[in-house]
Amino acid sequence: MTMAPKKRIAMHPASATAGGNIINIASGKGGVGKTWMAISLSHALARQGEKVLLFDADFGLANVDVQLGLNADRDLGGVVAGKINMSQAITPFGEGGFDIIVGKSGSGQLADMGRARLSELKSELWQLAQRYDRVVIDLGAGLESAVRSLTPKGGMTLVVATDEPTSLTDAYAYIKVSKQENSKADMRLVINMAGDQRMGERTYGALAKACRTFLDYTPPLMGIVRRDDRIPDAIRRQTAFLSRHPQSNAAEDLESLVSTIQKQPARPAKPPA
Ligand SMILES: Nc1ncnc2c1ncn2[C@@H]1O[C@H](COP(=O)(O)OP(=O)(O)OP(=O)(O)O)[C@@H](O)[C@H]1O
Ligand SMILES: [Mg+2]
Description:
By secondary structure, the protein is an alpha/beta fold. The chain has helices spanning 34-47, 64-68, 76-80, 115-129, 145-148, 165-181, 197-215, 230-236, 241-244, 249-263; strands at residues 22-26, 52-57, 90-93, 98-101, 134-139, 156-161, 186-194, 221-226. The chain has a single domain, classed as P-loop containing nucleotide triphosphate hydrolases (Rossmann fold), CATH 3.40.50.300. The longest helix has 19 residues, at 197-215.
């Protein structure tokens, strides 16, 4: 299977309900591949003809631009400082066919921002999301509400987990906390760095069982991405993985993930509070 770029298609139905077209990429534990997944998912969606915005919301260690070797002359830091608005912070990533709002490492925790400013940012992002078929948000690691606070109700969250026990416990904790805060939160699982499909399914089974037993909620499996040594290699070279290795196992897995996402019905979303 190949990831050949496709022609621009009509607006995806997900965009009919702004906010419902947002995909958060979360994990609890750091280093499980959130940023790589957020970039590559945005790229794969763009290759399917969707108009995509990738938003780097990792205020602690923003690194979408680092993984892609981008030298953006504007970033979220300027928005947080009130110098530019959210749409002025957009950097088009021509090679991937999608837009990026580059994050700003160390620009302060969202929690330090004050409720009013945070609320303004959420509302700006929500407005901006209406101009896209899909907005992919790379969230930072951790569980604190600040990490989750940019998320308008209605979007889906892909919780990325690997088979490492610490990843599984942190993914479980992330789902638990999110569900406690919002019982309707739409949490889904993506297993990354799986040895093969069967091992990925086993990892999913273990995590889903814990959620079912203790939370009375079974997050659906959205996809399994196999471990692929070409991913760290592409990141080291600061190149987009799908441009470099469009016919790899991981590219094929991303294509399945995209097709599963595109089969989901659009969910209505409320504007952020
Ligand atoms: N499927 C995969 N196969 C092999 N390596 C992978 C895979 N997915 C991600 N990686 C590697 O895992 C490392 C961590 O990836 P990444 O920085 O995207 O994780 P993260 O969850 O965003 O980390 P952080 O929490 O620090 O932001 C990278 O070196 C990347 O190359
Ligand atoms: Mg990251």
